[in-house]
Amino acid sequence: xxxxxxxxxxxxxxxxxxxxxxxxxxxxxxxxxxxxxxxxxxxxxxxxxxxxxxxxxxxxxxxxxxxxxxxxxxxxxxxxxxxxxxxxxxxxxxxxxxxxxxxxxxxxxxxxxxxxxxxxxxxxxxxxxxxxxxxxxxxxxxxxxxxxxxxxxxxxxxxxxxxxxxxxxxxxxxxxxxxxxxxxxxxxxxxxxxxxxxxxxxxxxxxxxxxxxxxxxxxxxxxxxxxxxxxxxxxxxxxxxxxxxxxxxxxxxxxxxxxxxxxxxxxxxxxxxxxxxxxxxxxxxxxxxxxxxxxxxxxxxxxxxxxxxxxxxx
Length: 314
Known about the structure:
By secondary structure, this protein is mainly α. Helix content is 72%, strand content 0%. It has helices at residues 11-25, 28-39, 41-63, 75-98, 102-112, 115-126, 134-148, 158-166, 172-193, 201-218, 229-256, 259-265, 269-280, 287-305.
């Protein structure tokens, strides 16, 4: 039987955890791309997720003393959400590794951040969320923005889009798949794990680290890793803050906080992440990239305001 109990914190506190996760996640693309440039994308992902997973295990075992409860979580949550979690990480780090320029990494980030809109799209059939007709206009705006992200020119046309994709189309498919997978994970964690006392992030993190490590062995980087002081610092930051802390906070928020408000707060991630990535990687984005970013955010906001209240069920 699933392990159930009264929440430790208030619903508003769980919601605040989700807001903190959003801020931490805004650094993910920038720091991951920088670290990948020094030690390889798959190797970087494997190291940060194995280290972050180890931190999550230690916290669950030594501080929360609920390590055994991880294995008593609902099977659907462990298998279904775990599969989405691991697949998301694999797609994200493949996309970062296949990106050839800083600008393309920014574009990968925008495609990845389709997930706030898609979270609400999946919530319609899975959580039985009721929406107004304008919801689907918001979805369309977000998709148009994602399609515009690879444009490197001022012209907005199908030919310009194909020209933007032709140089190196490979990062965009896993980046878009990552957006779909994280949206599914967020909604299914509410559907299958909402009453569980703890989340499965420690298990999922280790599984993601193992999967990325296996891929790193199968698809080795052409350049040897450079373990500089900066690389070590970036790895420590990612493992502790964006892997262990942010994902644990998000999981708790989606299971027991205001899921609609938490998902809405994530609409700011594309803008914040794009700014952080451009500054950290010294990328100068063109105006079309900002238009794409604005459409993704605007579409997500329209989706949120088009959700009818008194409807979310777990």
